Amino acid sequence: ARISATSPCPCAASQPDHTMADADILILGGGIAGLSLASTLAREADLLLIEAEEAPGYHSSGRSVTFSHFGIGNDAVRALTRHSRAFFIDPPEGFGQLSRRMPALFVADDTSLDALDQLEAITRSLSSGVERLDPAGIAALCPVARTADGKVVAGFADHDGLKLDGDALLQGHARALRAAGGRIETRARVSAIARKGDAWQVALEDGRSFTAPILVNAAGAWADRVAAMADVAPLGLTPLRRTIIVVDPPAGADLTGWPFLKSVVDEFYLMPEGGRLLVSPVDEVPDEPGDASPDDYDIALAAHRLSEWTTIDPPRSIPHRWAGLRTFSADRVPVAGFAPDAPGFFWLAGQGGYGLQTAPAMAAIAAAAITGAPFPAIDGVTPEQILPGRL
After folding, report:
1. What are the phi and psi torsion angles at 265 (to 5°)?
2. How far is CA 64 from CA 57, 145, 232, 355, in A?
3. How far is CA 339 from CA 11, 41, 158, 270, 335, in A?
């Protein structure tokens, strides 16, 4: 049944007359967290999503390399990633193709063999596509991996890695939201948030305001600031900057079949995309919420690590570079649940660098909490790991 502002709701103590509210649910933030939840709930409630920028997905969600693999996060994150794969492989009608297979190749030097063994064991428990590789096998899969001089001594490939289409994912959720009657307001910067009776009132800088009994805080790097505006205790979320540079491949190289290549220690990754290579030093630099831009040092570090882990010389030119903010909770597990200190205020935050690859699972968890449905059956994840009260 649709969530109604005139009937009891399992997620709020009481609700105002619907004539006094502009929606059943307001969602602040049009990244993958807010959009995926909005499209999930739009047929159940009168829903309004508010996004500060000109289009959804402008910040972190639109700047991700959008590759789904098990070499990131902790056990809970890997469980969310595994649960979400079905959505990407067989998406709902109207989304189109969201993914294609691309191997994930994890490599080690002499100092990181134990870490490689540990990650391989974890990945084998989650994927049937794992293959241990010696230097010759690594070079056959990724010709530029630096195996000849002994830098790269071992590795494994997960042949079931998924290259996601981030834009198709964002646009698919936006279409699904609108088709179900939901609304999206862009260029809508919040100036104030207040509790008015049994509803939340969100005022915008342009003078408009909207009210709803349920307010979802899916504001990414700004989530703690949104909470402060609403006089809700923050969760201690930390935005960390991640840098990507784009470089040309070696002359004459055929990138067909190249994998996502990552050092098992968080120093470097490389991914082919559009005839060029995306390279990151896997940096995590504390930053303030905002329109992140890459630092010269991190750009140089990415180029240096490219030459450390591959046979590619440091690039003479870098056609493109960017940075995004990856926002983490203290335990690096995403958060979904009602604030213990504020009725009707719902947290959907802390999705870190795995927001896209865990979005289907997190949307299902959040939707269940808001509608009062049972916690979804996600092997390896419990409500206690996700709820904001743990923080």
Report:
1. -85, 150
2. 10, 23, 29, 9
3. 11, 19, 38, 39, 10
Q: Answer for the pair 99, 166: CB distance below 8 angstroms, yes or no.
A: no
pLDDT digits (tens, 9 = 90+) for 378-390: 999 999 999 999 9
Which amino acid belongs to residue 260? F
- Tell me how far CA of residue 308 lies from CA of 108, 144, 267, 313, in angstroms: 12, 11, 10, 9
CB 47 within 8 A of CB 23: yes
Whether the predicted pLDDT of 14 surpasses 80: no
Least Cα distance to 240 among 354, 390, 364, 89 occurs for 354
Cβ burial 244-260 (10 Å sphere, 16+ → b, else e): bbbbebeeeeeeeebbb
CA distance linking residue 226 with residue 190, whole number of Å: 9
Bridge partners of 194, per DSSP, are 201
Q: What percent of the chain has pLDDT above 90?
A: 87
What the block records as the tokens of 162 is 């998924």
At residue 128, does pLDDT exceed 60? yes
Residue type, 22: D
Count of beta carbons in the 10 Å neighbourhood of residue 17: 11
Evaluate whether 156 touches 141 at the Cβ level (below 8 Å): no
Verdict on whether the full-model pTM lies above 0.90? yes
Q: Is 50 exceeded by the pLDDT of residue 348? A: yes
Return the DSSP state at 272.
E
Measured between alpha carbons, how far is 319 from 248 in angstroms, rounded to an integer? 8
Closest CA to 296 of 243, 249, 248: 243
pLDDT attached to residue 5: 36
Question: What pLDDT shows up at residue 306?
Answer: 97
Q: Give CA–CA dist 75/253, Å, rounded.
A: 37
